Amino acid sequence: MSKQTEATKKRSTVRHTRAIQRDRSKRPASAPADEQVVARIEEIVHPATLAQVGHYQALGLRSRVLTLPVMMALVLSLLWQQTGSVSELVRLIQQECILWVPPLRELSQQALAMRLRMLPAELFLNVLLAILPVLRQRSLERSRPLPAEVAWAKAQYSQVLICDGSTLDALLRKVGLWQDAASNPLAGRMLALLDLVTRLPVQVWYEEDEQAHDQSFLPKVREQLHKGSLLLFDLGFTNFTFFRQLGEQGVFFITRAKSNLAFQVECVLLKTAVVHDQRVWIGQGEDRHRVRLIALLYQGKWYRYLTNDLDPAHLPVEYAVALYWQRWRIEDSYAIVKRLLGLAFFHGGAQNAVQLQLWATWILYALLVDLTDAVAQQLNKPFARISMEMVYRSLPFFTRARHRGDATDLIPYLAAQAKELGILKAIRSDKPSRLRSIQLTIAQNP
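RESULT FIELD:
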C-alpha cells in the first residue's frame, strides 16, 4: 500500500468525525420527551442532583437561574433529545419546559456557554456515582433469564466485571483555545468498569491526555475490586505486576494470552485434540507466579487465555472461554454511549464542558440500561435479547400512540410492540450460543 493511500485512510476518520458534527449541528429540534420518560429520569436523577446542592454551595457557586438542578436538566435534555447545538437548546428553554425546568425567557446562549465552562464537572460525576447503586439494586431485584455462563458466574463469584478504555472523538475548532489549532484535537480518553450481570458501569474514569495508556488506570481499577470478584480484560492490560496484585487481593481474572508469552509448564491438566489446559509459571522476580494457560481450537483457529483461577473444577474450560467472550459487552456499551447517545460529538471545546457531557452521557446510558432491563423483565427475556438502541428509538412511537389513546404505560407498550419496533432481537437458528458451541466442540473431540 502506498504512503498516499495510507494518508488518505487516516484522513477519512477526520471526515467521519466532521460528518457526525455537521449532522448533529444541522438537526431540527425534536419533540419534547414524553411525560413518562421525563418521570423516569426525574425519579432517579433529580434526588441525586438535589443531594449535591450543599456541595455546590460549599464551592461558593451562586446563580439565580443556572443552578445545579437546572444545569443537570438542560445538559441531559441536550443529549437525550440530541439537540443540534447549545444555541438551539437556549431557544427551546426560552419557549417550553425541559424536564423539571420551566421556561427561562431571559436565558442567553453566552450565559449557558459560560456555565458549561465553569460549573465543576465533579458535581455531575457525583450524581452518576450516586444513582448507580440505586439502579444496580433495581436490576438485581428483577427476574429475567441470564445467559448460561453469566448465571453460572454470578453464583460463583461476588462480582463479574469488565474493564476497557476508549479514546474520545475530536473536538470542535470553531471557538475558544482551539480556533488556531492545526487539526481537531481529541477530547481525551475514558475507561469504564462494567458489571456484566447488570450491564451498568461501576465506575468511569477520564483522562485529558488522549495518548494515556489504559494501564495508567490500573491502580484506580484495583481500588474498586474486592475479594472473590472476577475481572475480564483484553490484551492491552497485560502486566505481570497487575496480575500478581490481583491474586494477592483475592481477585480472579480472565484475559487473552499474547502470542509471544514466555512461560514454563508446571503441569498439564487436560490435553485433547481441541483443548489444552495447563498450569504454567509466568513473569520474573517478585512477579513470577502461576496461572492457567487455556488453549481452545474453535472453527479452525486456536485461542489462548490466561486465568489465575487455578482449579479447573472451580472454573471449567468452557466457562472460562465463554466468559471471556462476554467481554465484548463493554464494546457494546461504548457503542451506545458514543454513537447512539452522541459522545462522538462535543458541544464545547473546554475540558470542563467535555467532562460535563461525558458524565451526563453515562447517566443517560445507565437510565437506558434500566429501561431496557424493565422491558426484558416484562418479556421474560435475557437482557441480551433486547436492543437498547431500538428501545431508545421507539420512545417517540410510544409518545404518538399515547396521544392517539392507543397506549397508556411505557413498559407494557414497548413489550407488546417489541417485534414490530425491532426491540426484540431475532435468534438465528444456525447460530447457537457461545457456551453451547464450546461444549459441543469439546464433546465431539474428546
